[in-house]
Write a structure and sequence with these properties.
Order of helices and strands: HEEEEEH
Strand order of the largest sheet: 4-3-2-1-5
Number of strands: 5
Oligomer: single chain
CATH topology: SH3 type barrels
Number of helices: 2
Organism: Heligmosomoides polygyrus (Parasitic roundworm)
Strand content: 15-25%
Largest sheet: 5 strands, antiparallel
Helix content: 25-40%
Pfam families: DUF5641 (PF18701)
CATH architecture: Roll
Protein name: DUF5641 domain-containing protein
Distance between the termini: 59 Å
Number of domains: 1
Structural class: alpha+beta
Length: about 150
């Protein structure tokens, strides 16, 4: 595409503008990741540790479909892999034991609940889903339009 006199930017101005926008975007992305690693992931881990330390009976138990961070010993918190709970092993007394977690590499790992940091994304409760599907009022059915009917002679 040729540069004409009506173009608002010349080639050098466009290049400078793009370089400036790229550096602003790169700086914003760097700031976002720093906040993510230092504050958000740390807050999730601390919240999970506080709940397990208090051993609250009202604390939400893990469910199939929950998204979690898998705590790994030799890696930093920002590099912990994400996982999806696919299987829950319960003991005879009802306590949750090792949980089957599917990783991004389609491997299913058995991990203790203490090694899982739940994210704020949770699976829907099946009881709530069933109540949503059964509305109290019947759905309204729209009658066909008269203009849509074809007339025959």
């Amino acid at each position: 595409m040729a540069v004409t006199s009506r173009d608002p930017f010349t080639v050098t101005e466009s290049q400078e503008f793009l370089v400036c926008q790229y550096s602003l975007l790169r700086d914003s992305l760097k700031t976002f990741w720093e906040l993510w690693h230092k504050e958000y992931l740390q807050a999730l881990a601390e919240r999970s540790q506080i709940r397990s330390a208090k051993q609250q009976s009202a604390a939400r138990q893990p469910h199939v479909g929950d998204v979690v961070l898998i705590q790994t010993d030799n890696t930093s918190r920002s590099n912990w892999p994400l996982g999806l709970i696919v299987k829950i092993n319960s003991s005879a007394d009802g306590s949750v034991r090792p949980v089957g977690v599917k990783t991004g590499k389609n491997k299913i790992l058995d991990r203790s609940v203490n090694q899982l940091i739940p994210l704020e994304v949770v699976a829907e409760d099946t009881a709530l889903v069933n109540t949503k599907k059964q509305p109290g009022t019947p759905t309204r059915i729209q009658p066909p339009r008269k203009a849509k009917k074809t007339f025959t002679r």
